[in-house]
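Re: your question from the hallway

Yes, I did run it. Sequences:
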Amino acid sequence: MAIGKKVRRALVFLLVSINVVILGGCWDREEINDIAIVLGIGIDRVKNGNIRLTVEIAVPRVIGSGQMGGTGGDKEETIIRSGTGVTIADAIAQLQERLPRRLFWGHMKIVIFGEQAAKVGIREHLDFLIRHPQTRTRCNVFVGKGSAKSMLELIPPIEQSASEVLREMAESRTLMRKTAKETLQTLNSEAETVLLPMVKVLPPPKGKKEIETIPFIYSTAVFKKDRMIGQIDDYITRGVLWIRDEIKLAHVTARVPGERGNITSRMIRAHTDITPKHEKGRWKIIVNVTSEHDIILNGTKLDLLSERNIQRIETELEKDIKRRMRSALDQLQKDMKVDVFGFADAIHKKYPSRWRHLKKRWNDVFPDLPVELNITVKVRRPGMNFPPQGVPEQEVKE
Amino acid sequence: MKAWLVVGMLIIVGLIWWYEWSRLEREYKKEKAAVAILLCLAMLLGVILMVNPDLPGPTQAVDRLFRPFGKMLEK
Amino acid sequence: MENEKITSVQMMMLLYPAITATAILLVPGVTAQHAQQDMWLSPIWASLIGFLTVHITVQLYRLYPKKTPIEYSVDIAGPFFGKFIGLLLLFFYFHVTAIIIREYGEFVVGNFLFRTPIDFVMGAMVFVCAVAVRSGIAVLGRLAQILVPVVILLLTIIVILVFPDIELENMFPMFENGLLPSIMGAATPQSWFSECFLMAFLLPHVIDENHGRRWGNIAVVSIMLTLFFTNLATLFVFGNITASFVYPVISVVRYISIADFLEHVEVVVMALWVVGVFLKISVFYYALVTGLARWLNLSQYEPLVFSVGLLLCLLSNWSANDLVELTHFLGTTGSFYLSFVQTVIPLFLLLVAKWRNRAASPQPAVSHQERK
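Structure:
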């Protein structure tokens, strides 16, 4: 051996130590205090067709030290920056100029499209968000009434950031919820339509600053291809959700004929089956809904212990649900003529070979497609009481 | 820049050479020759790739060879 | 050559990552492009090639025990053609190992270390693999025995974590255009299955060689199941947009979010996945270096390891210009290339060997006749 054991050992040790130095993330080493964590972004269209990108960035010293609470009173927990450019990537470049830290996209929770941007088309922006290796395909997508920037600028009283507010709202599933992945999936589906939740600013209570409020989801934007063509209100939206089998939270109020007062039930779970049928050369859609409910309010004098009363209530609830679905169909199928219900996919899945021919004429066929609604409501529990409260026993109807 | 790459290559080749040489006993002539040839090949390839990084490689050759089959899977 | 031994279970554990590790990267995307919603079926078709390759390899080994393809190709095709086939195999493994290293590099640089030079990523990996290969097959076998169960466990956990996000609907309509799309989709994964031919280089070291066939088939089945479940999980999550992802599986892992709490798990996945690729490259590397040593009639292969590693680094840089070219190659011509060398050539060798054995009785390989 030409070289002694000690020298050899020293050399090995040197090699290992070199590894320790150079393998700490290689060229991509990024310290936490060098990055700006993006929580949410807003995309607006400004004059001459440019894109204005607004990002909400977490201020690390405040977020995460929640226990200390109170002391940091009016210190903002997030900051807002904007940049403009021809594309969103372009805007990011300008935005980066105005930030001391490098933008980090791994924690982005929401994307808001301004109304104008949504009307021009969202595909290009979605492409960027999906293509980017840091962003999450799980981020929630919204359309903002007015500008997206105004939504992000709000300082919500409870949550730490406007982005977090919107994410929580979407995840509570009161109305629509769409992640970037789901948006692309529906864009790529047979019908090529998208529904996105629409948000606006909740007017602040008196005495509070204009900005100290939250954005909230109040309706739904309807997209044909990637362009927004209109919007539908919350009532219609629930009808659509019901048909699409996406409803998670619903209260149904009904009146029983011959009785005074209302009955409200809460949906526990619902299931919808869309079955396309082809009969005598004509297409037909059959929508079967089964829904389980609990009664949460009884303003009538009906005793809920009686099976007959429950059946009457069930019939009325069914009618109300049917009315919602019918009005959703009226507005979207007859007026706006967009297939947001997933009928096209249902036909594609059941009759793949026939769909190939039908697809070309789908836009003509769809508005006149007969839709049969079959709804079965089961009232499972009457809440904590059987008889109506505050009614003398002799007036209670069995 | 390129000069540094050549120097880097030389250092790596030298290290491997020294390491293998020091471990091989005298009678392993064939092994030594094999190592030397492989290192020369590596050096040669390295220099060629440095001069002409876009040189068509083995992948292109195979691609040419199997093109008729590959066509079946074109999308 | 060296007399180190592994068990047949260890051989299976080496084969499993040697195929799976990169088969869950680019392959699901390519499969989805052809098979769309039937992509879950493709691994099952593809595994047929795996079984065939295992069968051929084991048959050849029975005819020529204790020999690798480099040696028995000489026995079968004569000194000139035999050496030529050996050289072909060596070139092939040089090229394929380089491509695997490149795939690994592209993946790491494309997903995690964006600004790190790819040569550095690949070089670091090759160095680690070189050290492992130098340590011999016994060490590799034991490494695999320790690491592969962890990798399998991890893949299982991923599939379970994906559960809340699955949409069974994405599977329909089944067989929209008949079975052909799913068979077309199998073209790329089948070339991965043909890599079972690596068994031929491992079998001479297996102690309980009688179980070689059984564990080879078990390896094929477990790989098939892994691909089946990962494809299914991707399809259930991404549905009609699966084909648009370069690395669908890692995108699915990124999508995982359990109760807003268990998120960003892909880093853990990555760490253990790199382990899989490490084993994969090591197995190929080992086959290549020992093959080369045998072809040159050297008494030991260790001295060649580092210099071959350097060549591999250069070759992986040379093997493709960019990710698009690499994916296109693997999705089209590469599929035929891999299975041609690893399934068709061995099949040809086997047929010739059988024919020769029948034609002339006093041939070198007699052992199989005793067995029959």
